[in-house]
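Can't attach files on this board, so I'm pasting raw text. These are the components:
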Amino acid sequence: MTSNGLHLDVVETRGPLAVAAARGEMDLHTVAGFHPQAVALIDDHPYVILDLSGVTFCDSSGLNTLLRLRRHADENGGRLTLAAPAGRIMRMLRLTGADTVFPLYASVTEAKAAQPPDIR
Amino acid sequence: MDAGTSAGGVPGFRRESDVVSSGLGREAGGWRMLSGLLADSHLTPVELLPARASENAAAAGFPRVLIYLADLQRQVLRLLAAEGAGAEEDDRQLSVQGTVAGRAFQHGQILPAGPAGEEGRDWWVPLLDGTERLGVLRVSAVHDDELAREGMERLASLLALILHSRRESSDFLARVERAEPLNVAAEMQWQLMPPRVYADGRVVIAAAMEPAYQISGDAFDYATDGPLVHLSVFDAMGHDTAAGLSANLAVGACRNARRHGGDLVACGEAAEAALIEQYGQRRYVTGILATLDTRDGTLSWVNRGHHPPVIIRGNRWTTHLRCPPAHPMGTDLGLDSHLCREQLQPGDRVVFYTDGITEAGGTGDAQFGLEHFTDFLIRHHADGLSVPETLRRVIRAVLEHHDGRLQDDATVLFCQWLGPRPDPTEEAADLGGVPEPGRPAPAGAGGRTP
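---
Top answer:
Structure tokens for the assembled complex are below.
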């Protein structure tokens, strides 16, 4: 799955859980294509671990997309977990306080280990 | 009061030759210039202001007055005159950089506009509304002495007030102030925000924003309220007109809460509620909401998911304030707002800024950088430049650093706390860029005001 400049690769799915990796730049232009793909993924697998290690840029529209996806997962009885955010996106999460509202882990492995037992 | 009714003809108007003979006559001429302009100001459309100014100022020995207004970006000075009327095409727009007119504007000084001739000399005179730099006047003056300089400065002060009073109702003025087309958000934001400079004995406030003609979601706000000075910056997500709308909404809601007695936390909550009501949770605005108590230098502030302000003390020491962020306004993430406090020392400068100042240009290598930015502020402060001129230069440097094209709005709001007393001081005049003759008279020194 790709959108212009921002790609969503589904790495693994198991029941309600999906592990996906975002790659590229997350901004006003790229999130337009990315957002519906991620929504569709959450519809099928409400527990999503999003690997952000490949996101090289994130602006306010990027953060807004993550917040919207978080809400979408909550509304579907699931949870959006962020894994391995790179420097730039991590700074943005800290600055806005969003680092305290997302489940946030340094790696996908840790994020998986932290899922509810019946999901893992 | 008026010794010159014998001149006959129109009351309040005298030929310049009637009043040049004695110092006393010139004082009376100066008085008549100001009273004539005040009387005319009620019913004069702004297009006719240069003509009315010239007619009235002739009584004080200034037979010709031209008005130049700085553009929104503060890079050019543009003649206030109808298309094709008045000056040569070359003289309609002057660069702030590298011209004498521009130097008068930058340094707040009255400077000669040409060599002295038989009929006197032309001068560039800074045009200040309070401490907001509107532009410059070009004044032809018969005399070349202290009295003439005082007269020009008074003329400029009055014209600045009249120009300001017409600002909200004149498209002509709005066009003179733009050297390029504005986008819709910029049209809204410049209408929304207070003047870019304010100073009194307690504080000097200055702000700058680029790209001035193509704003997306940034806004700054400040207001005095007795001993309190409210200061805030906002950065709405996105780069579209809706970003401009969200910023407007946040500023409006915050002002509304403040003016009804709400504290900083309530301001942020009001903005959050207004944004959610309009946009669900699809749009957000980050910001810093602060209040400086000028009586004791306490800075209180709330962080709504934004870069914390920086304090510059003396010419070396800087610190980034810390305050746990509450969520960006409009996101409803449920994080508590903390009211944080910082004790300032007299002379401390608090700098609020948005992303574009430090992060424009994308991936990070080409950043102007916060350190570079504060160094720049400190260096020009040490050079003795006024605060508005320092900010004009720093924002220009940010712009040049990115080859004139910013990816994101770059806004800086600067506030220097001077002390508790509101009376005008030499320090406030220096920092605010007030020209010499407009300086407050030392206590006890009788002015020469008629």
